[in-house]
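Hi X.,

You mentioned you wanted examples for the new student's onboarding notes, showing what a folding record looks like when two proteins sit in one file. Here is a clean example. The first protein comes first, with its sequence line followed by its structure tokens.
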Amino acid sequence: MKGSKSTHIIRSVIPVLLVLMLLAACSPAPTAAPVAVPTAMPEKPTEAPTVAPTVTPTVAPTAMPEAPTAIPAMQPAVPGKPERTLKDTNSSYSAAAKSATTGDNILDNLYERPFSQDMTYQPDVDILTVDIASDPNFFYFTITLDGTDPTSKTLTATYGIEFDRSKTGRGDLLVWAHDAPKDWSYNNVTVYTDPDGDVGGPKPIAADANVKGDGYESKQKFSIDSIAYARISPGNPAAIQIAVSRSLLGNPTEFLWGAWADNGVKNPALFDYDDHFGPGQAGSPIKGSDYPLKALYSLDNTCRLPYGFTPPTKIPGMCVSAPPPQQKGSTCVCPYCPPTKACSCTC
């Protein structure tokens, strides 16, 4: 009986052991816990500085400013009544004959040549009169021509006023203008000066041989109050007005002045022209041995008129005229007359 009981116990334990073995076989094998690799401690992030927000002020819109002019210059006014009027030779009377009859004397730098080289008359080169007027800021010169260019109906030459401030006959400043507009403008106006004083050669006005001078070799720059203007005279397309500031001239109280119309050589570096062109080379508008015109053509100028003084003696290039009036008014001045001729004129 005892043996049977032991057998019974063994039989009861065996199934339990089998179940435990099966459970152990089916369970996953244990794995090792992962080992963490130590890393460097991260740096503490730098905080960006706190910037206080700015507020853009609101600006009220304004009108766009006008573009500044190149020179904010002093402006001419309306010329007043002429103080004096210079009268020049009128070659239209002999234009049909293709010649001038008087007023041209190359040996004294005086020209009456409003003709082309084929002796076609050019009314916009023929000076008839020149007026001078003034105000506290400017001198005004009105050059009246016989007419406009027949083709373009404009003034096609270069026009100028030459000054002799030394009162010796030697020009020292030339205002040169071309293509003048209807309104005052300093465009196309050039002021020439002669720092080395050789305009006119050894003997100003008189013709000198073999002159090597450079005439008007410098250009004067404009400034606010040192400036010159030109325009076509209102109401007369055959007249050009030139305004020259007193400051540009150095504020003189006495000087001589004369006018030019040049559509030929147009080279101030060759002033005086009679020092560079002899009678044979230049030709002549008056019928004779040097007729017709050659190198010096399309050219007219005037004698010079004194301003602000009565010369005690004749100055080279000066007009033959009555003394200036005691009060402002219009006085006619006759063309230059060489000492060797008897001259008269009626105004």
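Then the second protein repeats the pattern, sequence line and then tokens:
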Amino acid sequence: MENTIPIVHKQVHGHKQKPLNIPRGLEERLACPDCKAGLVLVGEGLLCGACSHVYPVADNGSMPILHCDKSEFANPEYADWERSRSKGTRRRSYRQARLLPKTNVTGIAKPQRNRFVNEVGERWVLNVGSGEQKIILAETWVNLDIQPHNNCDVVGDANWLPFRNGSFDGVCCTSV
């Protein structure tokens, strides 16, 4: 992946570090969703220095799982999740699993989204509820969703954002 940077931190408390392979510039934006303190890579997870919570990183170090303890969407099985490398049978989405009505407003919102993309340019944007459809808008867009999937950069709950305050220049939330 050309837009990622492997980040390896020194050993902490005897834990051997696994490299993080996340988009450039994302690591310094991540924060504990519970207390907003910074996170440090330890072993195979991210440690909050303030509340000592350790968050897993899935998909060989490329997807932080940063659910707040209060989130109804937190699931320990997400830590073992890996991106699909093939185009096999598509799994049921969480929208289908939760029996939400099938909607498609993406086409309706497309002109407004395109205008927004042109206005923000290369500034950092948080795409909340990124969904499974892979839309690459810019390398500085961070895709947040409540469960892991191939189009997700960070797993977390929008009620408790896992980012430092002031980390993004804009927010996009379409069809959520």
